[in-house]
C-alpha cells in the first residue's frame, strides 16, 4: 500500500474520531483502538523522525526498515494484546540557556517513538475539539508565528497594555500521574490506549548508567510528552 493511501486512510478515520468527539463533548470514547491497524502504524512510522538520537537499544531507522512490515505487525500485536513493554528512555542533559542549568531530555527507542506517534494520532482529533482557539502549542497546523499574530491582534483589538509571560518550572518533572489519569477519564476510556499510556508513565529512565523508575513526571523528549501537557492544560478554562 502506498504512503498516500495510508495517509488518506488515517485522515478519514481521524475526521470520524473528531466528529464523534465533537458530538459527545461530555463523554469518553471507548473504541479508539479499532483504528489502530497496520495502515495506521505505517503512517505513524512515516511521520516519525528518522534521524534523531537512538534509544537504549541503539536501533536506527535503517535497522528497523530492513524488515519494516514484520516489525510493524509485531508491534501491532504486542500493543493490542497488552504484551508491549515500554522500554526505559535514555536521558541526556542539554544546556537550558541559564548559567549552569541543564534540561533533561529522554530519548525513547525508535519503535517506542512509532507507537507513541500512533497513539498521538488517535488522541489529537479528540482534544482538538476541546482546546480553545487561542491555544497554539504542540497543535497540528499551528505555529509560534500564528500565536504571536493572535497576541498582536488581541492586544490591538482590546487595547491590552501588558502581557504576563509565565514558565511553569519543572512541569514535566513533577506531572501528577493521578491528575493526568483523571483528565484522560473524561475523554479516553479505551482500555488498550489507557494501558499503553500507563506503561509510558511507568517506563524507567536510564541516566548516567543508573536506571530509575520515577513515580511522578514524564520524560521530556518523547512524542507523547507535550501532548500530556496539552491534555492537562486543556482542563483549565
Explain this structure.
There is one protein chain. By secondary structure, the chain is of the alpha+beta class. The chain contains nine helices and four strands, in the order ααααββααααββα. It has helices spanning 3-23, 38-47, 61-65, 68-81, 110-127, 144-158, 177-187, 191-201, 225-233; strands spanning 89-95, 102-107, 205-207, 210-212. It has a four-stranded mixed beta sheet, with no helix packed on it. The chain is globular and about 60 Å long.
Q: How does the overall form come out from the CA principal axes?
A: globular
Main sheet: strand order? 2-1-3-4
Helix content estimate: 40-55%
What is the mean predicted local confidence, pLDDT? 88
Entry keywords:
237 residues; 9 helices
SSE inventory with pairings:
Elements: H1 3-23, H2 38-47, H3 61-65, H4 68-81, E1 89-95, E2 102-107, H5 110-127, H6 144-158, H7 177-187, H8 191-201, E3 205-207, E4 210-212, H9 225-233
Parallel strand pairs: 1-3
Antiparallel strand pairs: 1-2, 3-4
Helix pairs in contact: 1-2, 1-5, 2-5
Briefly characterize the structure.
The protein is an alpha+beta fold and 237 residues long. Helices cover 48% and strands 8% of the residues.
Amino acid at each position: 500500500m502506498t504512503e498516500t493511501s495510508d495517509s488518506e486512510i488515517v485522515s478519514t478515520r481521524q475526521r470520524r474520531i473528531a466528529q464523534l468527539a465533537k458530538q459527545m463533548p461530555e463523554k469518553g470514547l471507548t473504541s479508539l483502538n479499532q483504528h489502530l491497524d497496520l495502515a495506521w502504524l505505517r503512517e505513524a512510522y512515516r511521520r516519525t523522525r528518522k534521524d534523531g538520537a537512538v534509544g537504549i537499544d541503539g536501533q536506527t531507522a535503517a535497522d528497523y526498515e530492513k524488515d519494516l512490515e514484520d516489525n510493524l505487525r509485531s508491534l501491532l500485536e504486542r500493543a493490542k494484546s497488552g504484551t508491549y513493554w515500554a522500554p526505559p528512555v535514555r536521558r541526556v542533559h542539554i544546556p537550558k540557556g541559564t548559567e549552569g542549568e541543564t534540561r533533561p531530555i529522554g530519548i525513547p527507542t525508535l519503535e517506542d517513538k512509532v507507537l507513541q506517534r500512533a497513539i498521538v494520532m488517535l488522541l489529537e482529533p479528540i482534544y482538538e475539539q476541546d482546546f480553545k482557539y487561542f491555544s497554539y502549542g504542540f497543535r497540528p497546523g499551528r505555529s509560534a508565528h500564528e500565536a504571536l499574530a493572535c497576541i498582536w491582534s488581541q492586544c490591538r483589538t482590546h487595547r491590552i497594555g501588558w502581557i504576563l509571560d509565565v514558565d511553569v518550572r519543572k512541569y514535566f518533572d513533577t506531572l501528577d500521574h493521578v491528575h493526568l489519569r483523571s483528565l484522560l477519564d473524561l475523554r479516553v476510556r479505551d482500555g488498550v490506549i489507557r494501558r499503553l499510556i500507563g506503561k509510558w508513565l511507568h517506563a524507567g529512565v536510564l541516566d548516567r548508567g543508573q536506571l530509575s523508575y520515577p513515580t511522578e513526571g514524564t520524560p521530556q523528549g518523547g512524542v507523547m510528552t507535550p501532548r500530556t501537557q496539552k491534555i492537562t492544560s486543556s482542563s483549565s478554562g
